[in-house]
Amino acid sequence: GALAERWRFAAFAVFSLFVGGVIYPIYANWTWGGGWLAMLGKNVGLGHGHVDFAGSSVVHMTGGVMAFVTAILLGPRRGKYNDDGTANAIPGHNIPMALVGTFILAFGWFGFNAGSTLAGSDLRIGVIATNTMLAGAAGGMTAMLYVWRKYGKPDPSMLANGTLAGLVAIT
User: Fold this and answer.
1) How far, CA to CA in Å, does 48 sit from each of 34, 51, 54, 70, 104?
2) How far is CA 165 from the centre of its chain?
3) What are the CA-CA distances from residue 14 to residues 8, 11, 105, 154 (Å)?
4) Over 80: is that where the pLDDT of 116 sits?
């Protein structure tokens, strides 16, 4: 997403193969299923070792770091900044579709986060689902109220961004 529509499809395909075939499998092996990072607690006495609940580091942190580094390497979108350094807004092209996508992602997040307990009988599942809902709602409302106060009217696209930010933060 950080590089969407800004690089050639061939580069995207090669990068995806490298990430899916090398980076994620190696880090996942180190972290999940008793990998050396997970065993740091037992083997070296460092607490519980590396704990990755719901893919917080293997999936989200790794993807975020790759997005951050590649976006820095590629630079800003064409037309994002004026010659004097001021930023231009690049509005979304289909707000209803963005809101539907946000709703679908938020719905799926419940299965992802709560399902990461790996047991439907685990009593933490209700707390995790509730925290997931509250984080998404708080992120969306905070973003909406901030934009409303700053610009005098609410912006649905910022509500969607805030909701996803809250969901990512709780994960």
Assistant:
1) 12, 7, 16, 32, 34
2) 7
3) 10, 5, 27, 40
4) no
- Under the phi-then-psi rule, with left for phi > 0, alpha for psi from -120 to 50, and beta for the rest, what region is 118? left
**pLDDT confidence of residue 5:** 80
What is the pLDDT, as a whole number, of residue 3? 87
Q: How far are the Cα atoms of 25, 138, 141, 160 from residue 77, in angstroms, in the given order?
A: 31, 30, 28, 21
Confidence band (pLDDT; 50, 70, 90) for 89?
confident
CA separation (Å) from 7 to 17, 19, 75, 112? 15, 16, 11, 30
Q: How far apart are CA 69 and CA 78, in angstroms?
A: 18
Which residues have C-beta within 8 Å of that of residue 95, sequence separation ≥ 6?
156, 157
Q: Are 104 and 138 in contact (CB under 8 A)?
A: no
Residue 164 neighbours by CB under 8 Å, 6+ apart: 102, 105, 106, 136, 139
C-alpha–C-alpha distance, residues 108 and 122, integer Å:
19
pTM as predicted: 0.66
Q: What angle do CA 101, 107, 63 make, to 5 degrees?
A: 70
